[in-house]
C-alpha cells in the first residue's frame, strides 16, 4: 500500500497498475494517481474547482484532486507534497481536434478566473521574462570552459533566437490593437504546453493554464511546421479542419495564433535539452534544417491555410518575405 492512502478516508485500492507518468492505482470504479505537487494549498483548491467543473461537463477522465482527512488537497510524505487525484477512463470516440475544441468550450463556461494559473493577456510579460532568463543561461554557456564545439555552435545561434523573440513581442504588441473578436476569444482552460493530451486516456489537471485557446492550437501546429511537408501535411490539415468545424477563430484569434508561432519556444526547449547533457549532443545540422522548414512555414502560413492576408489585415514581416 502506498503511504498516501493513510491520509484519505477511502477504501484503499490494492492494485498498482503503473508508475509513469505517475504512480497509479485502480479499483472497480476509479483510477487513483499520486501526483507530486509543487504548489500552494490555494492553488490545489483552484485545481479542484476546475476539475469538478469538467467532471460536471462530462470530462470524467480529467484527474480531480481529493481532500484528505484534514480537508486539504496537499499531503506531505517525507519531504515532498502530493495530490491524490481520481478519474474514470472514459473512451471518447471523437477525433483529437474535435475533443480539443469541445474541451475549450467546456473551459469557456468555467465561472471563475483562476489567480494562480492565469496567462490570459500576459504573453508579452511572460515572454520578456523568459528572454531574460535565457540570456543569463546564454552567458553561462558562453563562458563555459573547456569550450565544447557543439555548445559554441549553439551559442552562435543565440542572437538569432533573441531576434525572433523580440520580433514576436513586437508583432504581439500590434495584434493586441485588433478589435475583431468573437466568442472564441474568451479565456478557457488550456495546457501549459499542448502535447496531444486529448489522445491520452487521462488529462492531468496539473498541466492546466487559464489562457486563450489558440495557445493549444499553436503548439499542435508547431510540430508540423518543423517538418518539410509542414502545414500541407494531411494530418495537419485534418486537425485544423476538424477543430475549426467546432470552434471558429476570429481575426484576432488568427493573428494571436501566428504571434505564438513566431515566438521560438521550440528553440528554448532545445536549449534546456542541451543544458542537461554532458555528451551525445543532438544533431545541430538537423536543428538548423528543421528551423529552415519552420521559417518557410511561417512565410507561407496564411496562404497555405487559404486565408487572405488582406482580408484579416495581417502584418507582412519583411525578414520572412526576404528569406529566399
From TrEMBL:
Superkingdom of this entry's organism?
Answer: Bacteria
This protein is called Spore coat protein YutH
Organism, by scientific name, is Gracilibacillus salinarum
Amino acid at each position: 500500500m502506498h503511504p498516501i492512502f493513510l491520509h484519505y478516508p477511502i477504501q484503499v485500492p490494492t492494485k498498482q497498475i503503473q508508475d509513469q507518468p505517475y504512480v497509479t492505482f485502480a479499483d472497480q470504479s476509479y483510477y487513483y494517481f499520486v501526483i507530486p505537487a509543487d504548489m500552494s494549498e490555494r492553488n490545489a483548491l483552484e485545481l479542484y474547482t476546475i476539475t469538478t467543473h469538467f467532471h460536471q461537463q462530462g470530462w470524467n477522465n480529467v484527474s480531480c484532486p481529493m481532500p484528505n482527512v484534514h480537508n486539504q488537497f496537499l499531503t506531505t510524505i517525507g519531504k515532498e507534497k502530493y495530490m491524490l487525484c481520481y478519474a474514470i477512463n472514459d473512451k471518447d470516440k471523437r477525433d483529437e481536434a474535435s475533443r480539443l475544441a469541445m474541451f475549450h468550450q467546456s473551459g469557456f463556461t468555467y465561472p471563475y478566473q483562476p489567480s494562480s494559473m492565469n496567462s490570459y493577456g500576459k504573453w508579452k510579460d511572460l515572454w520578456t521574462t523568459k528572454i531574460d532568463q535565457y540570456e543569463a543561461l546564454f552567458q553561462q554557456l558562453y563562458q563555459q570552459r573547456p569550450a565544447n564545439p557543439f555548445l559554441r555552435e549553439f551559442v552562435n545561434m543565440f542572437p538569432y533566437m533573441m531576434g525572433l523573440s523580440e520580433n514576436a513581442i513586437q508583432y504581439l504588441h500590434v495584434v493586441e490593437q485588433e478589435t475583431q473578436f468573437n466568442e472564441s476569444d474568451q479565456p478557457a482552460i488550456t495546457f501549459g504546453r499542448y502535447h496531444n493530451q486529448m489522445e491520452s486516456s487521462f488529462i492531468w489537471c496539473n498541466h492546466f493554464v487559464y489562457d486563450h485557446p489558440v495557445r493549444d492550437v499553436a503548439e499542435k501546429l508547431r510540430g508540423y511546421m518543423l517538418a518539410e511537408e509542414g502545414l500541407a501535411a494531411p494530418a495537419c490539415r485534418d486537425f485544423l479542419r476538424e477543430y475549426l468545424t467546432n470552434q471558429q477563430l476570429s481575426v484576432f484569434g488568427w493573428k494571436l495564433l501566428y504571434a505564438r508561432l513566431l515566438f521560438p519556444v521550440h528553440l528554448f526547449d532545445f536549449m534546456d535539452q542541451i543544458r542537461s547533457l554532458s555528451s551525445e549532443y543532438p544533431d545541430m545540422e538537423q536543428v538548423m534544417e528543421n528551423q529552415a522548414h519552420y521559417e518557410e512555414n511561417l512565410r507561407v502560413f496564411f496562404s497555405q491555410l487559404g486565408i487572405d492576408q488582406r482580408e484579416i489585415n495581417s502584418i507582412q514581416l519583411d525578414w520572412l518575405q526576404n528569406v529566399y
